[in-house]
Amino acid sequence: MPSLHLNGITKQFAQHTALHDMSLTVRDGEIFTLLGPSGCGKSTTLWSIAGLHRPDSGSIAFGDRVVFDHGRVNIEPEHRNCGVVFQSYAIWPHMSVAENVGYPLKLRKTPRAERDRRVQEVLELVELDRHAGRYPHELSGGQQQRVALARALAHPPDMLLLDEPFSNLDAKLRDRSRQWLKTLQSQVGVTTVFVTHDQDEALSVSDRVAVMDHGKVRQVGTPTEIYEHPADLFVADFVGTANILSAEVVQADGTHAVIRVDGVGEPLKVPHTGKRLGPVKICVRPENVDIHRVVSDVDLPTAALTARVDNQAYLGDHYRYTIRIGGSPVIVTTTRPATTGELTVSLPPEDIRVFHEEADSNEENHHAPVH
Ligand code: ATP
Fold it and tell me: DSSP character for 88?
């Protein structure tokens, strides 16, 4: 299966620039997710790959095959060989499951016997072979979405492009569908670009993720890189829950920094590759806040502080507390109940990420490169 290369793609809609000089590489056979808030340009990127939008600059190649090069090449959508699934599924209501799935092969004038064999094969793949004769109204939402996927795979595509395909499903079915897609994709091995604004979905299905904002890519990385080493405050805040606190770098040698966090008495020595001093924002994840005391005393480190619980929620497998550090709300998650209305916590230096405020990003912090 080919890799995918986007080079310097810009797309303008009247006065609005939806994509700014965007470059990306999706590796052969990976599930690559475009993640970002509504309007950041995810669908515009996907549509440009499919040939449904014509960018205003740049080029797009599937492996060595250039499908778009501004002013020179623009392969029509039907000749790009992309399997596309949209949020709405768009399956034909008057066709049976088998007819829907076989339709792209019929358009390509694939001989009947071969068509039937391939329809049977992909329906087995999506576990719908027993429902081949049913009509869409006789299927559940999840089954309809699998018909749409089977149809996208019927004529083996070079690229599978999925635009929020699970957003109409309920939470449980969505979760099952993600697992199922991951398994299916590993069997088929097709290079897949997946669009979502749901960070859980992005982290759970993807080999790599591009986090987008206002038509630009902020960071590309594996789910772990994106979550544990966000390139900037936007990524930290958008992916997962981030506690963002004001602090000041008072010493920095290029490998560590000594920071003073508002509301925390002791300075903290944190890993940090920058050398700049001054005001910063730090980010720490709720599950990384060290909880020393919930109901009983233990030996406390000097940097520990006791804070009142402003707010608490029982979420079945864990508790989620909101406490205050230096006037800022901090979310803490733990499996232990706080019976006193107080938590004694400290911030774990190794899990603190430091961002200089004015740039809203810190290139020194880029553990995962932006490609
Ligand atoms: P969502 O998650 O809401 O689907 P998205 O990240 O997929 O959002 P896009 O649909 O790519 O965002 O849109 C990017 C920007 O371009 C938005 O500001 C949108 O309003 C604008 N846009 C998209 N398509 C058109 C169009 N055909 N004409 C004018 N503006 C458009």
Answer: T
DSSP-derived letter for residue 215 is T
In 240-331, alpha helices (H)? none
Could you tell me which of 320, 327, 272 has the C-alpha nearest to residue 305? 327
Look at 54-58, 171-175, 248-252 and tell me which has the smallest mean pLDDT: 171-175
From the CA of 13, how far away is ligand 1's center (Å)? 9
Cα radius of gyration (the chain): 25
Instruction: Decide: 18 and 212 in contact? Cβ < 8 Å.
Output: no
Q: What domains can you pick out in the chain, each with its CATH number?
A: 4-228 (3.40.50.300), 243-355 (no CATH)
Q: How far apart are CA 349 and CA 361, in angstroms?
A: 19
Which ligand 1 atom is nearest residue 34's CA? 6
Q: Tokens in use for 370?
A: 């932006």
Closest CA to 332 of 280, 285, 262, 264: 285
Phi (first) and psi of residue 31, to 5 degrees: -95, 115
Spatial separation of the C-alpha atoms in residues 187 and 180, rounded to whole Å: 11
Q: Which of 22, 34, 42 to mutate to test the pocket of ligand 1 (most atoms within 8 A of CB)?
A: 42
Cα 211 vs. chain centroid, distance in angstroms? 7
Q: Is residue 333 lining ligand 1, measured as CB closer than 6 Å?
A: no
Q: Does the C-beta of 40 come closer than 6 Å to ligand 1?
A: yes
Q: Are 83 and 39 in contact (CB under 8 A)?
A: no
Q: Kindly report, residue by residue over 199-229, the tens digit of the pLDDT.
A: 989 999 999 999 999 999 999 999 999 999 9
